[in-house]
Amino acid sequence: MATATLAGITVERDDEGYLKNPNDWTEEMAPELAKEMGIDTLTDEHWKVIRFMRQDFQEKGQVPTIRRMKVAGGIPVKDLYNLFPKGPAKKAAYIAGLGKPHGCI
User: Fold this and answer.
1) Per residue in 63-79, pLDDT tens?
2) Which of 34, 69, 81, 88 could form a disulfide with 73 if both were Cys (CB 3.0 to 4.6 A apart)?
3) DSSP sequence for 70-88
4) Which of 101, 17, 13 is nearest to 63 (CA)?
5) Number of independent structural domains in the chain
6) 87 lies in some domain
7) Domain residues for 38?
8) H or E segment to which residue 4 belongs
9) Is position 12 within any domain?
C-alpha cells in the first residue's frame, strides 16, 4: 500500500492510486487528483458530478455507476464522457476520492 501527500495531507492509496479511505478526501485534493487523470481544470460541471458521487456514496455505501449518475444525478451520459473522457465513472470516482466503481476494469 502506497502513501501520497495531496493538498498537504498524507493519504493511503491502493495499487491503482485510488484513496483507500474516502473520508481522507478533501475538496482541495480534487484538482491534484484531476491533473493525475489528465484534467487540468475542474469546472462547475465537474464539481456537480464529484459532489453527486460523494453524496450518493455516503447515502448508498457504493460508488455510483454511470447509469446511476444519469438516472439519480440527472447528468447526461454524453456530458459525463465530455467531462471525464475515456472512462468517466473511473476518473470521476478517482477525483472524488472514492474507490473504483463496480464493473469497471
Assistant:
1) 999 999 999 999 999 99
2) 69
3) HHTT---HHHHHHHS-S-H
4) 101
5) 1
6) yes
7) 27-95
8) strand 2-6
9) no
Residue 45 grid coordinates: 460541471
- Whole-prediction pTM: 0.93
Handedness of CA 72, 74, 77, 83 (dihedral sign): negative
Supply the DSSP string of 37-53, one letter for each residue.
TT-----HHHHHHHHHH
Question: Is 34 inside any structural domain?
Answer: yes
| pLDDT single digits (tens) 20-67 | 999 999 999 999 999 999 999 999 999 999 999 999 999 999 999 999
Q: Name 92's bridge partners.
A: none
Q: Catalytic site residues?
A: 104
Query: How far is it, in rounded angstroms, from Cα 81 to Cα 57?
Result: 20
Specify if 13 maps to a domain.
no
